[in-house]
Each structure stands twice: as C-alpha cells, then as structure tokens.
Design brief:
3 helices; single chain
C-alpha cells in the first residue's frame, strides 16, 4: 500500500473522502497493520492504536482506526479538506505517511505521541502543517 518515498515519508494512494467528525480515520485492520509495520520497534509490548501521521497536500494530521471506514480509504473531516484540491470524493489521491521518527517529532510537539511529556497525550490533537 505504501512504498519508500524519502527519509521521512512513505508514499501511498488512498481514496480520500470527507466525513463529519473531528479526526481522520481509516479502516481499523489497515491502521493496525501499518502501525505495526511502520511504527513498531519490536521492543516489548507496543501500542498498535497510536495515530498514523499522514500528509495530504500541505497538511499533516493524525489518522485513527475505525471499522466503519472502507478499506483503502482515508476519511477526513470536511474542514480539513477545504484548502485541498480534493473534488468529487471519494478521490484517489497520493498521501504521504510519516515514518516513525518524523511522526514522533510531529506528534510530540502537540503531546500526541505515546510517552510524550507535552500535553495530555490522550487526545492525539492535529499534528499541524
């Protein structure tokens, strides 16, 4: 689904569709599998529900798992799509998936990376742009 793009990102193609809600979602099984392959270190017990950090055009955001989202789909809150070129959804789009180190950096700024000292760490707020 994703292939190496750079030192900081993997490149993939997902159907992007708007949703009501306040956080981006993808199918739970895919979310867990990608989390295990990309973010897990292999050291002890690790969370596989930590948000994936994706980039669509110029915006980064955390992505959570949800069984209601179709496979190969990135469901994004409508306000987050307002400044993008996504038209006539669902639209097949290139998306970047931040590698573990980049995701950790982005989410640690907002307290969203597991084990981060900044913020509460429970809500995984938007990772910024």
């Amino acid at each position: 689904m994703f292939e190496v793009f750079s030192r900081s990102y993997y490149l993939g193609r997902l159907y992007v569709t708007p949703i009501d809600g306040d956080r981006a979602l993808m199918h739970s099984d895919q979310h867990e599998r990608i989390n295990e392959e990309v973010y897990a270190t292999g050291n002890g017990l690790e969370r596989l529900d930590a948000p994936l950090v994706m980039k669509l055009e110029s915006g980064h955001f955390p992505v959570h798992g949800d069984d209601a989202v179709p496979t190969n789909t990135l469901a994004v809150p409508e306000p987050m799509l307002e400044d993008t070129d996504v038209r006539n959804p669902p639209s097949l789009r290139e998306v970047l998936l931040a590698r573990r180190e980049r995701a950790e950096q982005l989410l640690s700024w907002t307290g969203g990376w597991p084990g981060s000292d900044a913020g509460s760490g429970d809500d995984y707020p938007a990772a910024g742009t």
